Amino acid sequence: MRTMWKGSINFGLVNIPINMYTATENKDISFRQLHKKCNTPIKYKKTCPNCNEEVKEEDIVKGYEYEPGHFVILKEEDFAAIQSDAQFKGIEIVDFVNLSEIDPIYFDKSYYLAPQENGGKAYHLLREVMNTSGRIAIAKITIRSKQSLAALRVYKNALVLETIFYPDEVRSIDHVPGIPQDVNLDKKEVDIATQLVDTLTAEFNPEKYTDEYRSALRNLIEQKVQGKEVHVAPEAEHKNVIDLMEALQQSLKETTKEKKKAATPRKRKTTAS
After folding, report:
1. In this structure, are 164 and 189 located in the same domain?
2. Separation CA 110–CA 124 (nearest Å)
3. Cβ neighbourhood burial of 177 (10 Å; 0-12, 13-18, 19+)
4. Pair 19, 139 in one domain
5. pTM recorded for the entire structure
């Protein structure tokens, strides 16, 4: 696993040198865009429509469009001038809170933290204190010139840093159209829906969930690589249930049947001796 960032956790006067590693990876299957005529990968060029010429990397500057067609230009020295001392202190713990107080909508990316050569004892101390107190740390960290808010917590036997959005980065739910407010619900519908939830309730086991579309896409690509003919599977027939009560009852019936089927142990075949 490649180190993507080196720094330290600042916990009061305690300094814990750490290495940071990306905890997740994107498994999406990527495609190249090809010229339909000859299947050659397409190249993209940065051009200026005003000068009608290709622009080199050294001739590109950063501009903020403060109103349509009007830009203010920022140079590298401008960015350097506003960098605060906090940006060079690594992971600066500012508060300890309960994890339950943070809604999942705030979480962004996850990173594993491991101690450097001389940071093992302090790392273990912080991990132990957080485990004992049941709290997580709120910290600030700068990655690639961007200062982020972060949650530092214990995951299994390691410290994990989760970058989280600032409050002004989370859109207000008030801006979402069409959310029902006061709706009268039938008690029978609520009871059956509750039964359905109970029937579908299970312990969270991430290993049981797979990306079925990605698997099918990989299988399709492999078949094409091997020159096999690809057949389109017929669509499964779905009953269009409009009535809510009927939909709930049918869902409960099918879910209960599937659960009983899964719970029934398979009979082993016996061979005559």
Report:
1. no
2. 20
3. exposed
4. yes
5. 0.74
Ordered per-residue pLDDT tens for the chain, 273 residues: 889 999 899 887 888 999 999 999 989 999 999 999 998 999 888 999 999 999 999 999 999 999 999 999 998 888 777 775 545 558 999 999 999 999 999 999 999 999 998 899 999 999 999 999 999 999 999 887 788 999 999 999 999 999 999 999 999 998 889 888 888 888 888 888 888 888 888 888 888 888 888 888 888 888 888 887 766 666 656 655 567 778 878 888 888 877 777 766 665 555 444
Domain identity same for 22 and 134: yes
User: Within 13 Å, how many C-alpha atoms sit on residue 113's CB side?
Assistant: 29
**Strand pairing class (14-22; 107-115):** antiparallel
CB count within 10 Å of CB 32 equals 8
CATH value at residue 145: 2.40.290.10
Domain that holds residue 105: 5-27+82-169
CA end-to-end span of the chain, whole Å? 53
Number of domains in the chain: 2
